[in-house]
Amino acid sequence: MTKENIFTMDTSGIKFGNGCTEEVGYEAKRFGIGKALIITDKKIEKLSLFQTVKDSLGRYGVDFSIYNNVVTEPTDTSFKNASSFASDGDYDGFIAVGGGSVMDTTKAANLYSTYPADFLDYVNAPIGKGIPIPGPLKPLICVPTTAGTGSETTGGAIFDLEEMHAKTGLSDRYLRPTVGIIDPENTKTMPKMVAACSGFDVLSHGIESFTAKPFNQREYSEDPKLRPAYQGSNPISDIWATSTIKMVAENIVESTLNNNETSREKMMLAASAAGVGFGNAGVHLPHGMSYAVSGNVKEFTLDGYPEGKPLVPHGLSVIINAPAVFRFTSTTNPERHLEAAKLLGVDISGESSEKAGNLISNKLIEFIKKLGMPNGLSGLGYNESDIDNLVEGTLPQHRVTKLSPIDVGKKELRMLFEESFELW
Fold first, then answer.
1. How far apart are CA 394 and CA 413, in angstroms?
2. Assign residue 232 a region: left if phi > 0, alpha if psi is -120 to 50, beta otherwise?
3. Taking 90 as the threshold, does the pLDDT of residue 307 lie above it?
4. pLDDT of 56
């Protein structure tokens, strides 16, 4: 097999700083948007930040309509509903105001209203056909209200495929937003558990992209159009990943428990930095396993999230498996994992690289305890009889699992899920 020797670095524009939401209208005008579709959810629509967006668009003469039916942890059905709404209007640009669910839904609406197709045509293979997007989409401005997914800088959009009880997604460079408006003031009202889960997503983005299979160990992409957005760890993504890990480790507790303004700013910056890094390098097993954990939820709920519907927040479903995963992958590159442990704040003086996996694992569990997260999969309501379903839900997630530095199958995934049932 001929190995890859090329990697690319793509990202969205970034505008960062307190109060920059007021410049949404300027950005819309700059990108030629005359009639925008704002996509959000019913909670965000009631906040003052949403009025700021509308006022800014009004000042610059940008007409808009509002779609507010985004659901937390979106599904194929909710993606289709938003896409149908977008297709019925003559919009020349999109504005997403909300967290990862809102931004991912807006990406889907932009795609399917611009290039209509059977829903599974663009969905990642082998679940969908994985057909590349034919060309550029309409301008998309993202205004994140959580510090987590980094979706404002990535070409991915994740959803629950209801018939599979597992997450999958869309992934293409053309899905990247045109610009992200990253305003730390927009996270002031984020509930503590939402802040914790979002922060854990950021943290795992950093560690996973840093420890992913290197880009030059993938098969060569003879057609540049088929080179995946998630290419494997590479020297430029490493810069963003290492910065992310350190920033989150230093700020996640203070920003979550005390809503410290400086720490919230750092977490917002880290989320976007992580998006640049993993948006090109990719993530691997913690995310691949998380999709089955979220998709097979039974009765679990968490404060701060919508009531009346069982839900395992994405960041929680990721971090719950991460300690077992990094113990497992550390053997592939102990020195790199030891560096990750150091970035997490672990004192590695006198520690051998062979202990790197345990050092990362122990530090992650320390954070999980401090922020009041459940103790492993058992705390989410799973038991041993659920493992087969969790494994089966993970196996098709090739977009991310193939970036594991160790090849995995049913045996390895079963072991990792078993080790994730109780963390302490």
1. 8
2. left
3. no
4. 98
Q: How many CB atoms lie within 10 A of CB 303?
A: 10
| The amino acid at 5 | N
Could you give the C-alpha distances from 131 to 170, 226, 286, 339, in angstroms and in order? 10, 9, 25, 37
Give the list of residues 6+ apart from residue 163 with CB closer than 8 angstroms, or none: none
Stated pTM of the model:
0.94
Q: How far apart are CA 55 and CA 406, in angstroms?
A: 51
* Core vs surface per residue 179-188: b (16+ CB within 10 A) or e: bbbbbbbbbe
The stretch 260-270 carries a mean pLDDT of 95
State how far the Cα of 170 lies from the Cα of 147, in Å rounded to an integer.
Answer: 21
Assigned token pair, 295: 């998709």
- State how far the Cα of 283 lies from the Cα of 281, in Å rounded to an integer: 7
Q: What is the pLDDT of residues 100-134, one digit of tens each?
A: 999 999 999 999 999 999 999 999 999 999 999 99
Q: Are 323 and 345 in contact, with CB atoms under 8 Å apart?
A: no
Which residue, among 61, 51, 1, has the nearest Cα to 25 in the 3D structure? 61
Tell me the per-residue pLDDT of 328-359, one tens digit each, with 9 for 90 and over.
Answer: 999 999 999 999 999 999 999 999 999 999 99
Q: How far apart are CA 154 and CA 98, in angstroms?
A: 15
Q: How many CB atoms lie within 10 A of CB 216?
A: 15
What 3-state class would DSSP assign to 417?
helix
Contact between 405 and 212 under an 8 Å Cβ cutoff? The reply is yes
- What's the token pair of residue 421? 């049932």
Which pair of structure tokens corresponds to residue 245?
A: 């890990």
192-224 pLDDT per residue, tens: 999 999 999 999 999 999 999 999 999 998 899
Q: What angle, rounded to 10 degrees, do the helices at 192-211 and 334-343 form?
A: 150
147 is written with which tokens?
A: 């510090």
Round to whole Å and give the CA distance between 150 and 374: 24
